[in-house]
Amino acid sequence: MKVLPVVTGEDQQCYALALDQRWLCGSDGALTFFDSKAAATRFLELMNVDKYVEGEGSEPVALGSDPFQCFQYGAKGLKSCDKCMRGDESRSAAVREFARWEERW
User: DSSP string spanning 23-91?
Assistant: First the structure.
């Protein structure tokens, strides 16, 4: 597993996780980024991954219209990022998902 610094289309540095040259994606296929190395490594800890390599440099990521989600690490753990527009979209998607689950009950 690699923790790689990347620059999104918004010129914001984030961190991504990659395994065998494949990006970590969410269940809906959206690329997954983290606002800091601490957030990325916390995610790995939660997944019981204790061996990872830190990548060098900041690679620009051409996202185009590809969906992605962004997370940050705060006092209450990992949450959708509130520092970027994509984080806002992630929170909106999470709210819609929770509402969908509530409708089932």
Answer: E-B-TTS-EEEESSHHHHHHHHHHTT----EE--S-EE---TT--EEEEEEETTEEEE-SSSHHHHHHH
